[in-house]
Hints:
Blueprint: E1 35-38, E2 46-51, E3 57-62, E4 66-71, E5 77-82, E6 88-96, E7 99-106, E8 110-115, E9 121-126, E10 133-136, E11 143-147, E12 151-155, E13 160-164, E14 173-179, E15 183-188, E16 191-203, E17 206-218, E18 226-231, E19 236-241, E20 246-250, E21 255-260, E22 280-286, E23 290-295, E24 298-303, E25 308-313, E26 322-327, E27 332-337, E28 341-351, E29 357-368, E30 374-381, E31 384-389, E32 394-398, H1 400-419
Antiparallel strand pairs: 1-32, 2-3, 3-4, 4-5, 6-7, 7-8, 8-9, 10-11, 11-12, 12-13, 14-15, 15-16, 16-17, 18-19, 19-20, 20-21, 22-23, 23-24, 24-25, 26-27, 27-28, 28-29, 30-31, 31-32
Amino acid sequence: MSFLFGKSKNNEKLTNNDCKDAEIGSFQPENPFSNITILPAFKSTVTQIYVFKSKKKFAVGDENGTLSVWDSKLGTKIIEIKFHNQAINSITELNLVEKNFLVASSNDKSMTIWDACSFKLIAKTNVGPKIYKIFEANQINGFFFAASSDIKIFDHSLNVLDQFPRENRDETIRLMMPIDGTKIVLAANTDIEFYALFCFDKIDLIVRKIRIKQLKIHKNCHSDTISCLDFLKDNLFASGSSNGAIYIWQADAMQKIMELKPFEESDLCDTFTKSDFFSVCGIKEFDSRYYIIASGLSLCVYDNESEKFIFKIMNSHNGSKITNLLTLENNLLVTGAENGSIRIWKFEENLDQKSILNVNLRLVGECLGQSSSISILKTMSKKEIISAGYDNIVIIWRDSVAADKDRKKEITKILSMIKN
């Protein structure tokens, strides 16, 4: 295992036939994530990480079905729950008035709900077909929905309140995204499906009845498997597929409004083929104007005002495909790749001598700790990210300056208590 923190070199604007690598040096003063915590090695591959809304804890699910909860600040294990006997495939948090619950589903076709404070088992159920994703029903307290071959609504006791039998159960639900708390978008192989939640007998925040209704299905809107589903802004979301196709959707109208084509034949050189830029893994809205797209080897910036791609890095991770994309504060982006590297990018805007706006993604840091492909990359807080790979290792990457400040505050507090 190795860890690398180095100095960045200004990478040039890579467009057309320029196929240079983004370069990184041996010392990185602009890389904030130089303070690391490595969790004790897990016995099997980590399949899920869920960060609690309070940011004080996070839950980890693994391939063996073990669910563990960890202290975010100390990186210590709070509890380990061995209940499920196959991989944990989804974790979420459910808030009900003053009580919080942790919900987990597994490939063993079971789902459990736990008290998020005492971690006592509240309820368990066999859901039949494997659950693929579970979400809290935002703005509707006490309910969450789950997708398998059907869509189901559960309460905090795992009672099924309603379910919708989907038309084509052979089309596997791969991705699921809530929009505005009452609309659900599903990606099932090559289809996009829209559903709505209807609430009845609602008094204040208490809902007594809830129903699911199918709104629309766009069959085969992608020609290959949908690999990415990201919310953008203003009821817009994006879908990307394994063959590199990208569509922007209007959720209210439930229609495609734009197709993005980051790479044309003229962008390619002898080093790469078009398939090197397939497998879209992330489409993020940035600064209310731009879309950042991670697809295959590449990172691209699309400008909504000029309706053009204005920046492209064709080989962002030294010939390794990107697996994850995060946007952070202070104009920072984070990407993870199949070679186990995590790279930190600075989004920059500047006017040249002719007052033309230039955009740049500058590589400012690299974090090497995972010895396998990055399978999970999430934001823990404004100053922390967490990563996992197929090497059974979980790493918390912290802003070293912020960590030093917190440490000094703790020391000052302890000394003050001793004096008193």
